[in-house]
Amino acid sequence: MANEDNNNRDPGKDGNGAVGRRTFLGAAGAGAVATTFAGCLGGEDEALTIGHLAPMDNPLGVGSDRTAQMAVDEINENGGFDGEEAELLTRDTRTEPSEAQDVTEELIQQENVDLLVGTFNSETTQSILDLTAEFDVPFMITGSADPGLITDFVGDDYEEFKNVFRIGPINSDFQSESIADYCEYLSELHGWDEVAFLRDNAAWTEPFGEHVPDLLAERDIDIVLEDALSIEIDDLAPVLSDVNESGADYILRFFAHINAGEMLGIWHEAEYEFGIEGIHVAGMLPVYHAATEGAASYETTSQSGAAGVSPITDRTQPFVQDYAERYEGEDEPPTQAPMYMGFNTYDGISIFGEVVDAIGTTNTRDNLDEFVDEMLEIDFTGVAGQISFYGEDSDYPHDVEEERGDDGTITNFPMTQWTPEGDIECVYPEQHQTAEHQMPHWMQ
User: Fold this and answer.
1) Which site among 109, 301, 328, 437 is 20 to 30 Å from 418 CA-CA?
2) pLDDT digits (tens, 9 = 90+) for 142-183
């Protein structure tokens, strides 16, 4: 998957050079458009539909689909969306921009969806922003953290892209700050102040590459090795050898596309004298400890909702319990708890229910201004945290706001750690902590 340059966007093309929706409409001609789409973009008696976009060959997408259905079912059972029952339509993006464009076009033009929610990787999300904006479809991002999805679209052309909101996670700029504060916590706890900084070579990690080195330097933490790894990498042993030679106290890694299971196995077998910290999406899978035969012990990853192990809000743990009871018998993981995207998707659809009730209509595409105004008034207690959005004049318009504690540190980016017993504990920040961070037993 090629890394996209969000700062040099051609509005007539998607991130892969394909012709975008706006260009297509211009080329087709008014008569062709009218003929092709007549009857597809409106209709007073059409059912309320919510489109969900996710990589369905990935447990992250499966969990998101399940929580989307939970949210729709719960609202339908409690009076509906402004009195209407909704139907959920999930489409598989396959983590490919071209596929995402195709299924989004189908949902908008054929299914006449009133809301789009989801998407995982930033390149896929970027590829459909023009299309959602063209037809005024509210779009809630629930898996992509790249700040450019907001700043380069909603920020650069607010009137065109005001349909776009990010429910979570907080963007990578704020994540960088939170990770730096977490590193300071590790320094105070263990005396760890030398870091090997590794990341996916992908759009979502570019802000980490830009901000993390300076943020760590401000905290007297040194980066002794730095690399952006190809997402196609299939041999992580040389990387671990380089880290070992660098003398780093721990790896600070940002992996969404790279599954570091092999890295963890080698790390445990060799008992390397460094920890493994940061973000690892595969490590969020509730069965990951068992799947790695315990090699995940001591690794950490940040994840929305802290995997449900901490009462982030009074809704977090009841939500995870309901999820586990509902999907306990399913063969396909995740069955114990959704991964981070599922928390955000559930919150997004729940917020949508409140907003359409407030504006008195589910016809969001013809009432986009009212929908946006109400979204900007939201202060919603979700399962992943308290949710509100930045306004038009901010640096991140329509982005989810970060939460901060009394000391000014960000609190809605919790860190979790696998224990040798196979449990997940929340180790940071302090107000959500269920256990203190452990260094590997061979380092103690």
Assistant:
1) 328
2) 999 999 999 999 999 999 999 999 999 999 999 999 999 999
